Amino acid sequence: MLCEFPEINSSVLYNFAALFKYDPSAPMLFSSGIFWVLFLVFLPVYALLKKSKSKMVLFVIAFSLYFYYKSSGLFFFMLIGTSLVDWLVSRAMVNLKTKRAKKILMWFSICTSLSILGYFKYANFFLWNWNLMVEGNFQPLDIILPVGISFYTFQSISYVVDVYKRKIKPTKTWFDYLFFLSFFPALVAGPIVRADYFLPQIKKNLPASHADVWGGMWLIIVGIIKKALIADYISQFNDLIFNDPSLYTGVQTLMGVLGYTMQIYCDFSGYSDMAIGLALMMGFKLGINFDSPYQSHNLTEFWRRWHISLSSWLRDYVYIPLGGNRKGTFRTYLNNFLTMLIGGLWHGAAWKFIFWGAMHGVGLAIHKACLPILKKIPDNWFTIFIFWAITFVYVSLLWVFFRAATFEDSVLIIQNIFIDFQWNQIPQFFEARMVWCIMMIALIIMHFIPQTVADKAQIIFIKSPWFVKLITFLIVVQLVIEFMSEEVAPFIYFQF
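Below the sequence we write its predicted C-alpha cells.
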C-alpha cells in the first residue's frame, strides 16, 4: 500500500505540470478555466508590484509571454524578436539626420513584419494559385499560423510609422515596448492597440480605481455571456447549416445565416469586452471596439461601429496614405475599395475573404456616390427602417461568404434562401429550435438597447454590494454550464 503513494503523487504532479505546458489542441482562451486560475494568482501579485513601474512591467511581460506560449507555443520567441527589431529601428530613426535614411529604416521594419506575416498566412495561398495557373502538382507547406500574428503585426507597423512621422517618441527601454506589443489582454485577438494611446498609460502607471476594477468585471461578465453563453450555443445550429447547406430548407438556411450574423458579433465583441475588462482591472484603457454595429443605417456607419480598432487602423495607415478623399471623386471610391480589399485579405488567405472585402468596398463607394441623393430624402421612421434593413441584409449576406467553406457553398446557401423559402415552416422551426430562437430574440433586443441604459446597468453593478456581484457572477457561470457544448469553442478571430 505504501509503495503506491509515490506513484499516485508522481501522476498527480505530472498531470498538474501538464496544465502549464502548451497543448496545440487546447490553446489558452479567456473562456477557459486554467486562464482564470492563473489570472487570480496574477492579479494580487500585480497589485503588489504596481507601485514600482519597472517591476510591474517585467512581471506583466513575463505573464504575457507565458500566456502567448500557452496560446501559440514557441512562437512567443518570434514575438520577442519582432519587438526587438522594431525597438532598435525606432531608436535608430531618432538618431538619423536625413529623412531618406529614416524612411529606408521604416520600410525595412514594415517589410520585415509583413514578410513574416505573409509567409505564415499567405504562402500556401499564393503557391496554390500559382500552381493552378501553371497546372502544377501543389502540396501545401506545413505551416502553422501563430495565434494573433495579424493583430500584433498591425500594432508593430503603426508604432514604427508613428515614430517616423514624429507622432510619438520611441520608448526609452525595450521592455516598455515589449510590454505594449505583448500586453496579454489584447495580444491574440485585439483590440489593435495604438502606441500613441497606450504608451502614455505605461508611463503614468496609474492605479486602477474602484470603478475600474468593478467596471472591468462587468465587461468580463458581459463578454462571457456573449461568447460562452450565446455565441457558443447558437453556433451549434449555425455550423450544421454551413457544414452541409444542401441538406436544409430555405427557412433553416435563413435562420443559420441570421444566426451566424449574430454569432460572429457576440463571439468577437464578447472577446473584446473581456480583453477591455481585464485591462481595465489592471488600470489600462484599450478603448471601445464595438458600438452596436447592427444598428447602422449604412455601410459607412457600420464600419465606424464594427471592429473599430481595425477600421481606424485601415483608415489611418492605408486609406489616408493612398490619398483618402483628397484626390478627386474617382480616387476616393478607388481608395475605399482598395482599403476594404486589403481588409478582406487581412482576415484570411482565401478568395472568399477577398470577395467579402471587395464587396464591402463596392458598398462603401456606392453609399458615398449616393450621398447627394440620400441627403434629400426626409428622415422618418419608414426611411430609417428601409436604410437599416438594406444595410443589415447586405452585411448578413456577405457574412455567408466569410463563413462558408467555399465560394460555391456560399452561392448555394443564398440560393436556398431565395428559391426554397416557405413561410409555413417558420412556426415548425420555432417549435423545433425554441431555445435557439429565444436566445436570438433576446440578443436582438439587447443589441438595440440604448447605450445609456447599458451604461446605467454597469454603474448599478459597480455600486452594488459585494454579494450582489457574487450572485450575478455565479448565475452567469451556472447559465454557461447549463448551455455549454462538450468542448470550449475557440474564438472565431483566433484564425486571423
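The radius of gyration is 24 Å.
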